[in-house]
Amino acid sequence: MRLEVDIASKTFTSAAGEVHDVLAGIRFTLEAGEVGVLVGPSGCGKSTMLRILAGLDPDYRGHVSRPAAARIGMVFQEPRLLPWRSVEDNVRLAAPLADEAKLSALFAILELDAHRSHFPGELSLGLARRVALARAFAIEPDFLILDEPLASLDGPLAARLRDQIAILVDRRTVMTLLVTHDIDDAARLGDRLFLLSPRPARIVAEVAIRTPRSARGDAAIATIKADIARRMAGDPTGRVA
Amino acid sequence: MPRLLSSAVFLATWWIASLLIGDVKLPPPPAVLAAVISEARSGALFLHLGVTLARVALAFTLAMSLGSAIGYLMGRVRLADRLGDPWLILLLNLPALVVIVLAYIWAGLTEVAAIAAIAINKLPTAVVTLREGTRALDASLDEMATVFALPRWTRFRHVILPQLAPYIAAAARSGLSLVWKIVLVAELLGRSNGVGFQIGVAFQLFDIPLLLAYSLSFTAVVLVIETLLVQPFELRLFRWRPRAA
Ligand SMILES: Nc1ncnc2c1ncn2[C@@H]1O[C@H](COP(=O)(O)OP(=O)(O)OP(=O)(O)O)[C@@H](O)[C@H]1O
Ligand SMILES: [Mg+2]
Fold this sequence. Notes:
CATH topology of chain B: MetI-like fold
Oligomer: heterodimer
CATH architecture of chain B: Orthogonal Bundle
Largest sheet of chain B: none
Largest sheet of chain A: 6 strands, mixed
Helix content of chain B: over 70%
Structural class of chain A: alpha/beta
Number of domains of chain A: 1
Number of strands of chain B: 0
CATH superfamily of chain A: P-loop containing nucleotide triphosphate hydrolases
Low-confidence stretches of chain B: none
Number of helices of chain A: 7
Shape of chain A: globular
Bound molecules: adenosine-5'-triphosphate, magnesium ion
Mean pLDDT of chain A: 89
Low-confidence stretches of chain A: none
Distance between the termini of chain A: 26 Å
Strand content of chain B: under 5%
Helix content of chain A: 25-40%
Number of strands of chain A: 9
Radius of gyration of chain A: 18 Å
CATH topology of chain A: Rossmann fold
Distance between the termini of chain B: 20 Å
Number of domains of chain B: 1
Order of helices and strands of chain B: HHHHHHHHHH
CATH architecture of chain A: 3-Layer(aba) Sandwich
Structural class of chain B: mainly alpha
Largest interface: A-B, 24 and 16 residues
Mean pLDDT of chain B: 91
């Protein structure tokens, strides 16, 4: 399984009739078991790209090849839960095949046990985001798309969830694409980092992290982060540990 | 409690008015009650109420299901909207009386004509409301359903229907009150039973207690259906909404 992306351009026509470019030259591949991380300034076109990769937007120039039968689990930038269904039903509707044991484990990991029967309108944004994560994991995806999944969670919780994502991602061979603004998340979760330019987005640098996720100690993380920072500042040299 | 109070005020006003106007034009409550009881004893009251209710149920179901389907289609498919729109405007502005009279002329003084005429009167408002609801469907939830590959039925039942529910409820609400009003006219003009027919008879005989007996029994039935059926159903449907204070 493998994702091949070659988007030459993507434009939007605004209501006023002006055409503007959002993506220009996005080219990369992702293998099964890899976590790709997209880092780029706000408004550069990351969510737009994810929608194309998820097959939601066929209106672009270029080519994306995605395993045909891949099950996609997606965490949108907003939670996108069904307001009229309970937390548990929201997850079950997307993953009718998931058994009780699995759901219980998932709810426990994401600290949602107490909220199973709540409606989304009764949740905080952070809780709703966790439900969206539960939904994406419950279907045991082959292709996992995460659009800033850890935004609006407090530091310790975000760290716990990040570790959980790492565990879930390593347990199965799943292709993962993660959008984040947090260099720390990128350094801890990613196998390959794609640094994007401001709109229209191009990949300005690709950073491969060789150290396996589980073996990255604090020192290794610090080195990786320093390297990312240098790359973002425009220095094209060097390969990360 | 407030309901009881307002019923009491209604009765008192009626009684006083009948004293002022004279009981030939406005009989007092006991006279009307006597007429209700005598009609109920003979069974006529229940027969006519039953027939009318059956017509309401049939015409309402017909108009709601057909109207919802057409409205959904017009909301989703551009071409259907373009084709249907002129018809919709025509039907919306056609007076109820015209529809009823034409139906009786073309289909004879039959049950089918009566029910069709009532349904056609209600149809366009259901279409308009459901079209609006369909246009307001949340595209982001649609995308979610697509990505997670929800099966068709799941998608309809859990993603689309709950979004249309308020519109369906609104169409049902306004539709029901429209049907209540029109059914009597249709009965008056072309049927030989039902509350509308009885009111016509009472009018010709100038039997005002009888006229009021049927009108008020009918109103009572409408009220009971509203409070016991429609309102609890709406409450259940919108359980998930945070309650207004
Ligand atoms: N439907 C649309 N019509 C017109 N322009 C759009 C549309 N969707 C997005 N855009 C524009 O495309 C650009 C990229 O939007 P996108 O949501 O992909 O950004 P992003 O990188 O995800 O930003 P953020 O980090 O803030 O989420 C923005 O400038 C936005 O204004
Ligand atoms: Mg975004």
